[in-house]
Amino acid sequence: MSERLITILLIILSFLFGANFVFAQDLEVPNIITRTQWGADEQIKSWEPEYPTLPDGASDFQAKKIVIHHTVSLQLPEDSDGTGQYKGKIRDIYRFHVFNATWEEYPGIKQRGWGDMGYHYLVDPNGNIYQGRQGGNGVIGAHVYGFNEGTIGIAVLGTYGAKLNGKYETMEISPRIRDSLGKLVGWLAAVNDISFAEKTEICGKNINKETICETTYGLVGHKDIGKTLCPGEDLYNLLPEIRENAANFSKIYKGYIYQEQNKKPVYKISDGVKESFKDLSSFLNQGGQYEKLFILPKTQLDIFSKKIPVRHSDGSLLREFNSNEIYLIWEGKKRKFEVTEEEFIKLGFETSKIKAVSFDELDSFENGPKIKYGKDGSLFTVDGVKIYFVEEGRTKLITSHTLFGALGFKIPDIEKVSQDEISFLLDGSPMKYPDGALLKAKDSAPVYLIDFGKKRKFWTLRQFLSLGYKWEQVLEIDSSEVSIFLDGPPMRWPSGTLLRADGIPDVYMIIAGERRLIKDSSEFLKRGFKWSDIIVVFREELLSYPSPSDKIQSGNLVKAEDKPEVYLVEGAQLYWIKSAQDFEKRGYKWSDIITVTSQQLSKYSIVSEIVSEPPPTFEPELTSQTKSKSSQEELKTESKTELKSGGGQESRIRIAIFSPDAGHRIKIKGNKSYKVYLGGALLISKEPGEQTTYLLDNDIHLKFESESLDNIFEIISYKDSPSWKPEINYNKFRGEIEIKYSPKSKKIWVINDVLLEDYLRGLAETVQGDPLEFLKALMVSSRSYAIFHLQNNGKYGKEEIFHLKNTSSDQLYKGYAREDFAPDIVKAAEETRGQIAVFNDKPIRALYSSGAPESTRDACSIFGSGFCDKSYDYLRGGIPSPAGASYKRTSCDQVNHCVGLMADGARYLAKQDKTWQEILKYYYQGIEIKKLY
């Protein structure tokens, strides 16, 4: 029976009995004799390996075509050692290619020597396979002019149908040549993902440097893409058979993975590169499948470059799949954490940012020193010069002896340590002068007050002394120490101060940080002012105080300077308050009216209709006294009010920000005037910028309220800084702040009571720059999720004092400070205001996650029986990943649950011009969109 017939019968049997037929198990990977084994003299080689490049500049190691040649050799002396090999002939061809082979770089200009073997592989009459050109898979050869990039050249020793010296010469193509060519071509096709099923285009350059393209199969003869008779008529006529055999072998080889003898790592070779896994178990746990594990010599594995893993930037948090060991990528190395979960968070990291990666990705980084948590409060030095303080587990440099004293440290407390002892500690930002410090650079005049981490300039010595500061308290330091502080607002005169600019007669009174013009002398005298009270300042200082007319904000009361009508500003509209009775009925104060120019008012749309009730978009605040008496249950009842389509009111939501211990000294201030209530009774009223400090205990019930709609509370004693930008602190919040002990969770909670739309503006579930339609979809999902829990007594039940937490397990909320970094998210919230997704006319529990390249999961199987009834049918899963979408995560896990909307898939849909409504209805089957308000 012929070899060809046996091959055909075996292939037929493999289809009948499946891929695990003995043929697949017994098919050996072609053995390749290396350059070292056939005796390549590497000293004579003059052409170093080169590779095609991808658009991003990276090397392209994947071959696209395989080209068959013959060497046109009539004399084929076999080696005399009895091995049946032709090493001597291979060395002769090598030397000829290095020194004597000719080629034309330009028409008519001959070049001599290819610098290395032109072919990638050679096959001798006995079927032995030799490694040719140095550089491994994907290296640019010298075997087919103009098409050397992206092709593999395989040459058969001998002459197989060509005229030499006027005589037609050919040799027998032995069964061993046919078998080796079929297996070698099949294996190279499998590991490079080359298809033989159809013709594809390949482009190169001709001798005139012009682009030429050919459409061919994945396996071709030299003559198919070059002006030549190579590989000879007989060998060329055999190509269809080789192509057919190679295609069948390739299907089998595609099921192979590889391992080096007595080594644990396994390798998957595809697209011309090898991807390594720590062991077979790791490969399987990452979803790998295979038909056969083949032991491959290291020399043959080394033909393939490692797959270039995703290069993670400094600051990335990584763990290997199915491992709990966490690493920080820093300065191009991986540093393993040896800390508790609590210490991990104190160091400024978030568990939600940990990314599971392959062994290959993690293994591509060198090991750096491990990470441990330093002893907070300790002082140490390594060299006796630089002194460090440990705070929140990190080392912080104390930049000068002056700073050391200003921080209250003492020299006996400094410990001398070795560099090795502290190499495992992370660096923190340098220590700074504390709030309240007065600083002056040695080489300049201005004096600064450090206030909330920023430097505030005093305008003059008179202002400095008038505000109660003493010159002996000023610290003279290097300008470099001053420059590390960001500029804060310049120092302000207190409310009631009278100022005028030098050379200008107009007198202004400072009220709450603004300058207000005293129009004439009669008004000045009527108010009981004295001319001697006026302080003359530089014009620049006076103009640094904003005028009330500089900015008209929603909620302000305004009138034109030449007209009596008073208006309420709401967005871009003015609502006329028709009478004094109506004005007073609403609780407004005449002193709050801001006088502006008619030109400024002309920019707004005036609602001419006289209204007796407040405008529909304006919801007056309850008075502080009324709200203070409201019980927690009443607040929850308000939140649960049924919301009718298009006519409802915006709800308030209570978000737990953090849980301080008893004994914590809370520090809060507002940018507008505010009031503090203790146990329902007014404790104190504060001016804008004034700080309130209070020592907490387990009986605490504090409320911070402001009558100004645009007040922002800053919790000074709260630190929430992202690792990617530690100078940011997400500690500012719209709405109200309440601090109260929860009997249910048995903790003190700092709660932000805020309007729902303001809550959405501060979400940090995605990043600035994402497609707007995706952001809108996420905002509607987030709004639906929040309203679902509002209507169900909060996520933690009606006994808890808040509705949601500000963590990624609920929705990641960073408050007002987040708005500056993500204006697109604010825009998405505004443009979908009041819109929610409903199922059977009820808000959906809009679960979402980052997603992975697989179908969405059923909430019932992931989260249990609570999600198994029909009211959750929109979370049944089975929604396929959009074709073409790319994902940051490769699989679903406990954190990346893949239930509901998958963010990476939704981003892709948005880029394909899908609307936010289409995106939501794709992931949440059977929903409708409803506008509540």
Walkthrough of the structure:
The protein has 933 residues and is of the alpha/beta class. Helix content is 22%, strand content 26%. The protein has 27 helices and 56 strands. The strands form 14 sheets. Strands 44-43-46-49-50-41-51 form a seven-stranded mixed sheet. Strands 1-6-5-7-2-12 form a six-stranded mixed sheet. It has a five-stranded mixed sheet with strand order 16-13-14-15-17. Residues 10-25 and 609-645 have low confidence and may be disordered.
Enumerate the strands of the largest sheet in spatial order, edge to edge or round the barrel. 44-43-46-49-50-41-51
Structural class, please?
alpha/beta
The 3D shape can be described as: elongated
Tell me, rounded to a whole number, the average pLDDT: 86
> What portion of residues belong to β-strands?
25-35%
Uncertain regions spanning at least 5 consecutive residues:
10-25, 609-645
Number of helical segments with 4 or more residues:
27
Helix content: 10-25%
Count of strand segments: 56
Largest sheet: 7 strands, mixed
Kindly report how far apart the N and C termini lie.
83 Å
- Roughly how many Å is the radius of gyration? 38 Å
What are the SSEs and their pairings?
Elements: H1 3-17, H2 22-26, E1 32-33, H3 35-38, E2 65-70, H4 87-99, E3 102-106, E4 109-112, E5 121-123, E6 129-131, E7 151-156, E8 160-164, E9 167-170, H5 175-192, E10 200-205, E11 211-216, E12 219-221, H6 233-237, H7 239-253, E13 256-259, E14 266-270, E15 273-277, H8 280-285, E16 292-295, H9 298-301, E17 305-306, E18 317-320, E19 326-330, E20 333-336, H10 341-346, E21 354-357, H11 359-363, E22 366-367, E23 379-381, E24 387-391, E25 394-398, H12 401-406, E26 414-416, H13 419-422, E27 438-441, E28 447-451, E29 454-457, H14 461-466, E30 474-477, H15 479-483, E31 486-487, E32 498-501, E33 507-511, E34 514-518, H16 521-526, E35 534-537, H17 539-543, E36 557-560, E37 566-570, E38 573-577, H18 580-585, E39 593-596, H19 598-601, E40 605-611, H20 624-629, H21 632-639, E41 652-658, E42 665-670, E43 674-678, E44 681-686, E45 691-695, E46 701-705, E47 713-715, E48 732-733, E49 736-742, E50 747-755, H22 756-761, H23 772-790, E51 804-805, H24 823-831, E52 835-839, E53 842-843, E54 848-849, H25 859-863, E55 901-902, ...
Parallel strand pairs: 1-6, 2-7, 2-12, 5-7, 13-16, 15-17, 18-21, 20-22, 23-26, 27-30, 29-31, 32-35, 36-39, 38-40, 41-51, 54-55
Antiparallel strand pairs: 3-4, 5-6, 8-9, 10-11, 13-14, 14-15, 18-19, 19-20, 23-24, 24-25, 27-28, 28-29, 32-33, 33-34, 36-37, 37-38, 41-50, 42-45, 42-47, 43-44, 43-46, 46-49, 47-48, 49-50, 52-53, 52-56
